[in-house]
Design brief:
5-stranded mixed sheet, single chain, about 625 residues, 6-stranded antiparallel sheet, 20 helices, alpha+beta
């Protein structure tokens, strides 16, 4: 489970006492010594199998000790050679079992050897010593208990039944028992069988309890897996801490955000905001936890500046109470509400747009008058421009150019040229006459320029008056560039569809940018309009317009508008963004120039690349991801 969980005890956990810790230490050391006699495979076996193996090691060790003591006392018994042989045989069996446990991967054969030795020893002692008291001794109850535990109820029944038959039937016959002794032997046999039955019942109850426990653990693990999957797959920040602010559990979303905020990995058991965390975060956390530890639920919004992607979080910190109502911890939930905040911002922007639209509707009447005045002034401008064009076409400047070329040809012998050459002698007279004519032309052109200047001044005054009514101050806001691109494309959608232009979008995941929406939209609309004209003029059937958005640096974003239209010749490329330059028949040459100026005001850069005529063109805008407009 990748959700981090602290291994430390919670604030409300039970601390173990010193005596229980000491007992656990002694038991652990004892079990470790028993495990020395087990093979590596047995040490990795299941808990039940490992328990049986440890019991076998302990039992065989005890039998070996008893066997040694028995051999020291064997001379005092009848038939010492027989008893000595039996003692050595039992010792050999115990050593063999221990060696098997050391090398094999199963406890079945060592368990069979132990049960066989116990049963054989018990029956032999009962029959050879010939005493009813030996066969009815309470120690015989260990036999069914060990056999059932080590071999199971079915296999253990044969050993217990054989022992019971020997005690209840064979022993009275061998010892010539009286009526009372017969009853004692039968009761001993009955108790042996009863011990087997009780041991079997105990084993069955334990197995049933283990099965129920396994089912409960399986269900718990299943619920834990579902809960873990839910926590890991949610984008919300989730964690729990104790009353001291130490982390108990956290989901990966918090771990990722924690690395951005603090710069280190989130570790269970560590303080959520350690001493090296930013002071503003620590102070905010302390104020929040002080209220939560008093039993209050705290909820607030935060927008940490250290995050790579600007986000707004709705954070809720809740107290965790024990059965007594005391605060034993806290849970923290953080939901990303950036989209909701942006929607609210867009709603506010729409409201402002509606106000602007209503304001502009009231300006329509003024605009009509402005257009009429500008139209009249433009008529005067048109007349003056036509006159200027006609006079310039009739100008004698070409003669002056020829005269200067003639003098340039005779730079080395200019004196000889003016005194001897026929053309040189006529040149001063020609220049004098040309100067007189050009002076007259200059006066006429100045008069027309003066008239043109007055018309332009009139247009400027009309436009300035209109600007006083329509002045707008740009607003820098955080917006999604791809959404703005889609809005610009929708404005051209009908035209693109009618002309058969295919639009291809290649958007990468980019953060929000701080920019003037209206200026950027103006640039995009102009670029899309130019691309439409280029595709219309190329005449090809597979008209394609490709829009790309991606990051080019840590703090820069690039928008590309590429077409496979008529392209741009190398000689036109340097003048593309200059005022008045255009390649369109009916163009005015202001669109790209104004777009470049607007880009510069936003600290952006507008550029173009083309492989030549007929090869299409690509216009790009490089924008700062987070920044203010350049107001300088």
């Amino acid at each position: 489970m990748s959700t981090r969980v602290a291994g430390a005890q919670g604030a409300g956990g039970l601390e173990p006492s010193g005596q229980s810790v000491a007992r656990e230490g002694v038991a652990a050391r004892l079990l470790a010594r028993l495990d020395v006699w087990l093979s590596r495979r047995l040490r990795r076996a299941s808990a039940d199998e490992l328990g049986r193996c440890r019991m076998l090691v302990a039992a065989h060790g005890l039998l070996l000790l008893c066997d040694v003591l028995f051999l020291f006392q064997v001379t005092r018994l009848p038939f010492p050679l027989l008893w000595g042989a039996m003692g050595l045989l039992c010792g050999a069996g115990s050593v063999t079992s221990l060696l098997l446990l050391r090398r094999s991967g199963s406890s079945r054969i060592p368990a069979l050897l132990l049960c066989a030795m116990l049963t054989g020893g018990f029956v032999a002692a009962t029959l050879l010593l010939g005493g009813v008291g030996v066969g009815t001794h309470a120690g015989g109850m260990l036999l069914p208990m060990l056999c059932v535990y080590l071999l199971g109820a079915r296999r253990a029944f044969f050993f217990v039944a054989f022992s019971g038959l020997s005690v209840g039937l064979v022993l009275p016959l061998v010892s010539s028992a009286g009526p009372g002794q017969w009853e004692s032997c039968l009761l001993a046999a009955l108790f042996l069988l009863g011990g087997w039955g009780m041991s079997w019942l105990l084993t069955a109850v334990r197995e049933h309890a283990n099965t129920a426990l396994e089912r409960a653990l399986r269900a718990l693990r299943d619920h834990e897996r579902k809960l873990t999957s839910l926590l890991e797959n949610t984008e919300d920040v989730v964690c729990s801490v104790d009353t001291e602010g130490r982390l108990i559990a956290a989901n990966p979303a918090l771990g990722e955000m924690y690395r951005e905020l603090i710069g280190v990995e989130l570790e269970p058991g560590a303080h959520l905001f350690p001493e090296y965390a930013p002071e503003s975060l620590r102070r905010r956390w302390q104020e929040c936890t002080a209220q939560v530890l008093s039993g209050k639920r705290v909820r607030f919004e935060a927008s940490p500046s250290r995050l790579k992607r600007p986000r707004v979080l709705d954070i809720s910190v809740n107290p965790v109470l024990d059965v007594a109502g005391r605060v034993v911890g806290m849970t923290v939930f953080g939901r990303d509400i950036t989209d909701r905040k942006e929607a609210e911002a867009r709603l506010g922007e729409m409201h402002r747009s509606l106000l602007d639209v209503s304001r502009q509707a009231g300006m329509a009447e003024i605009a009509t008058g402005v257009l009429h005045n500008v139209g009249n002034a433009l008529n005067s401008v048109n007349v003056s421009v036509n006159l200027l064009s006609e006079r310039l076409h009739q100008s004698r400047l070409a003669g002056l150019s020829k005269a200067t070329e003639l003098m340039a040809e005779h730079t080395a012998d200019l004196g000889h040229f003016f005194t001897v050459d026929r053309r040189g002698k006529q040149l001063p007279v020609y220049l004098k006459a040309l100067t007189t004519q050009l002076t007259a032309e200059r006066a006429e052109l100045l008069d027309e320029v003066h008239t043109l200047q007055k018309s332009v001044e009139h247009i400027k005054s009309v436009v300035s008056m209109q600007q006083e009514h329509a002045r707008f101050s740009g607003v820098v806001e955080r917006l999604e560039v791809t959404a703005l691109l889609d809005d610009a494309l929708r404005l051209h959608a009908v035209s693109f569809e009618r002309l058969g232009i295919e639009v291809k979008r290649e958007y990468s995941e980019v953060p929000l940018v701080r920019v003037d929406r209206h200026k950027l939209l103006q640039i995009l609309l102009n670029l899309l309009s130019n691309a439409r004209h280029a595709l219309l003029e190329c005449g090809r059937a597979d008209k394609l317009l490709t829009i790309r958005v991606g990051r080019v640096a840590a703090e820069r974003l690039r928008i590309s508008v590429a077409d496979n239209g008529v392209g741009i010749s190398p000689e036109d490329a340097p003048r593309l963004f200059t005022q008045g330059f255009t390649t369109k028949k009916d163009g005015h040459g202001f669109g790209l120039h104004i777009s470049a100026l607007a880009a510069a005001e936003m600290d952006a850069f507008l550029s173009c690349s083309s492989e030549g005529r007929g090869q299409g063109a690509t216009f790009t805008i490089d924008l700062p991801i987070s920044g203010e407009e350049n107001r300088a």
